[in-house]
């Protein structure tokens, strides 16, 4: 059945996990051991119903709805925000649990993760490079294909559009939902027909004859109608901008070419983000990473859970049927959400020891 | 051993199912007292009638305890993960039509589409500190639909009945439910989103991919041929037989 591993493979994965944990400890991280059971509310609030479909939900008579931890990042961030001194480096080794809704894939529903997380506000690009280079060194013997991206560049591109703020907010909100993002961008560019209902509403016909029901208030509706009217009055986003976004999302090239290729898109708002990318690439090169064999994809990280908001990376095996060997990225916004008014730049990632074991076994 | 046919145990769904099989020369009827869930099959050899709640038929098909079963296409899609790997659709039966839709308060003049719903959910979460609540019993279908459409900032609240009343009772802002005429929705001051159709359901004859068809292959082929699916029976119904 899905998820079952033979005892020898399990022992091998555990052994590799211990080896990775040892390397993380030597790199200066403190080990952290979060609970298996996590309050569901926090995770649901962060990730929405997606996480309910992917995680095992159970109930506790006193603590309410709980989840078998689907990842370590949230409890690690919570632990740091509650008590951690700065800067901090954490590592962990343990099982995560993911419901598998598809019978064919044979993806395991429980597996080990070995992780390393850096909370450091002094030099974010150096911290990005530290995590990536550490993973690259630990996985070098497997010769994985590494891909990097940067959600910060996508955010900068949206923030740089010359249009009204509500449009930019909506686009920023949907960077991780490509389908809705493109639909919104098309609508703001005037490429989609405006429905009759919408035209009537904007023209002032807001009567429905229906009694008011529900928690949403008439004032909230009035506020939204005001936004719709402002939107109808605003100039459409030029088609040329939509084309620039298409080109940006398609951009994929060796990492050392990425800054030049991004500049060639002609989006001046990207300059600070491109400068950060250049600093990160320099920091990687200083740690002996060859950025000409490293792959950059502008859309990388768009279809994963939405907490990565800057640098993202994946180490993948040559066999596309296998899950990635390692993934990670920057999640500054997550520390803000969980920090109760405080925040700290944070970056980290996880390695899957069972995938490492499988690849080592083939050699 | 016999080929087991699962049929809803009561109501119009049962009667219509009996009619549908009857029109194809197979007599299904309940036996014993009015309250006893026992049935008989006439006109087909080696077929046993199993009377079940329509809601349990997907599970019984997935477990392979029945070979064929009649239930709503919505229930199969909602209750079974990766449903098409567990059961095969033999035939839509032309009755039991109902649409699974998303409905919002009729007083929301600014909401007509999923685009609107998404924008409202985002603003609602900012204003109320919680995600927009959608009451439904069709968790998988609704979740997959809204995720595919890229709608954010909602949560599902379970509602096993009287779902249309949840908005007025302030336990949800939106409902996702089955409707055929829309009358209950209108009576509860709700309206359907113009692009909020999640699934058009009807009673459907399903075949289990998990059942042991070798138990009486001849009876299975004969039954499918008599129902007018000779070709499907010949082709092994996609590898089932």
UniProtKB/TrEMBL annotation, chain B:
Superkingdom, taxonomy of origin: Bacteria
Gene Ontology cellular component terms for the protein in this record: cytoplasm
Catalytic activity: 1-(5-phospho-beta-D-ribosyl)-ATP + diphosphate = 5-phospho-alpha-D-ribose 1-diphosphate + ATP
InterPro entries documented for this protein: ATP_PRibTrfase_cat, ATP_PRibTrfase_HisG
Keyword vocabulary terms for this entry: Amino-acid biosynthesis, Glycosyltransferase, Histidine biosynthesis, Transferase
BP-aspect Gene Ontology terms: L-histidine biosynthetic process
A Pfam family: HisG
Residues in the signal sequence: none
Keyword Glycosyltransferase: yes
Keyword Cell membrane: no
GO molecular function: ATP phosphoribosyltransferase activity
Pathway in which this enzyme or protein is active: Amino-acid biosynthesis; L-histidine biosynthesis; L-histidine from 5-phospho-alpha-D-ribose 1-diphosphate: step 1/9
Catalytic activity, EC: 2.4.2.17
Residue ranges of domain ATP phosphoribosyltransferase catalytic in the record: 54-226
Function: Catalyzes the condensation of ATP and 5-phosphoribose 1-diphosphate to form N'-(5'-phosphoribosyl)-ATP (PR-ATP). Has a crucial role in the pathway because the rate of histidine biosynthesis seems to be controlled primarily by regulation of HisG enzymatic activity.
Full protein name: ATP phosphoribosyltransferase
Organism for this UniProt entry: Paenirhodobacter enshiensis
Organism phylogeny: Bacteria, Pseudomonadati, Pseudomonadota, Alphaproteobacteria, Rhodobacterales
